[in-house]
Amino acid sequence: MKSIIHRNSQLYDTERAGFQRLALHEPDLVVPAASPEDVREAVAHAAAAGLPVAVQAAGHGLPVPATEGLLINTNRLSSVTVDPVTATARIEAGARWHQVIAEAARHGLAPLSGSSPGVGAVPYTLGGGLSLMARPYGYAADQVRAIDVVTADAEPRHVTPGDDLHGDLYWALVGGRSNFGVVTALEIGLVPVERIYGGALYFDAGHAGEALRTWAAWTASLPDEMTSSIAIIPFPDAPQAPERFRGRTVATVRIAFTGGAEEGEDLVRPLRAIGPRLVDTVGVMPYTASASIHDDPTEPAGYYATHSVLRELPPAAVDALLDVTGCVVEVRHLGGALSKPQSYPNSVGNRDAGYSASLLSPGLAPGTDTTALRPAHDRARDALAPWSTGGRLLNFLYGENATPEEVRRAYEPADYRRLAELKAEWDPRNMFRLNHNIPVS
Ligand SMILES: Cc1cc2nc3c(=O)[nH]c(=O)nc-3n(C[C@H](O)[C@H](O)[C@H](O)COP(=O)(O)OP(=O)(O)OC[C@H]3O[C@@H](n4cnc5c(N)ncnc54)[C@H](O)[C@@H]3O)c2cc1C
């Protein structure tokens, strides 16, 4: 192997660090992969040495951190090319969404990227991928056209939907992610979107309850072209918070409408009537400006998060959310194309979901003991239980919460059984276990 980094190397800390800083992977070895061949060699080395393998791109989705084994860092494997004729992009394992958004926009196209353009496009997509345009276009995973992957036998494979040679490997990888191999590149479909009617409305703490109630009722009768979410954020009085919101709690409704501006304005009117807006950025914007909709943090930090997948969001569920204190509450509206049949079936679950409700404790110092945070998160999840599907979104399972029991909830029961069987076929030694693991059945 060209390059391999040990625990005592000066490069060890930088090569293992990603966006999540609460706890980091602590593998025995790190391979900074710069080519698909580097990935193949790393997997071959791990297989021969009997080492478990972890893989990391931007590191927003760190699961239970590895304490052993080999970590493949894909940051250097990050090219993006767009084919405007087929409206597809080929994205390498370490590419970030902002790269894909910029390349696609040159051809009047857009990817199904999410709230933060700093997230790794490949892990996001293989974990489902809940995009800003989720309701008109479905999960980002539904756009996967081809996969280049190195499987546990260290073989590079090109996998497509309905592929006779590789059986169900496509179905398993799209949703099952690194349980079935290390993906070196994806080919994904892009959508013909240059502009959206979108942005965010911010309300002060005194209107947060009304904002959540109004938004929840409003989502009951929207066209699929409208994707939205709401967050109630208690900003700390600290430099990492936007200056205008420091020390304040605000409610923010985020909008991305792929229909016309006039219709968008009509649809958003009831939200604008909630009360005085601290900020209103909703208008026609190029998709390249879509990061401003959620305005997610861009600096690496520690965070603890939990979520529930909800069937519906009646007033009693809204009240349960309004009882939460001390953490960020975010609710995303699902449904639309997320619930419709896909052109290329995959193992992503939660097709019956109406909403996702997340709780986030951000700004945690590395090594923070999360014991004191858990009760508030658990109480909120218990309070939402009457409306919960019991499901989980794989992409929103972080750190200590990414246990095999929680991972199981990301899939339909029959799909999970099939994934466990395929795991036995493709990775019988569970070499790929330092992840959102599906153990061998
Ligand atoms: C601020 C923020 C905003 C977010 N917004 C959204 C959103 O809008 N929608 C949404 O769906 N999710 C969202 N997420 C979740 C995010 O999509 C997932 O955490 C995703 O895994 C992040 O990709 P990454 O490269 O940053 O993560 P990483 O931590 O690098 O990867 C996560 C996991 O993916 C697997 N993986 C990584 N590389 C490969 C590979 N090459 N082959 C196979 N498996 C691999 C590994 O198991 C790894 O542990 C958000 C997260 C944060 C922190």
From TrEMBL:
InterPro entries: BBE (IPR012951), FAD-bd_PCMH (IPR016166), FAD-bd_PCMH-like_sf (IPR036318), FAD-bd_PCMH_sub1 (IPR016167), FAD-bd_PCMH_sub2 (IPR016169), FAD-linked_Oxidoreductase (IPR050416), Oxid_FAD_bind_N (IPR006094). Gene3D superfamilies: 3.30.465.10, 3.40.462.20, Uridine Diphospho-n-acetylenolpyruvylglucosamine Reductase, domain 2 (3.30.43.10). Residues 23-193 form the FAD-binding PCMH-type domain. Its cofactor is FAD. Keywords: FAD, Flavoprotein, Oxidoreductase. GO terms for molecular function: FAD binding; oxidoreductase activity. Belongs to the oxygen-dependent FAD-linked oxidoreductase family. This is FAD-binding oxidoreductase. It comes from Nonomuraea zeae.
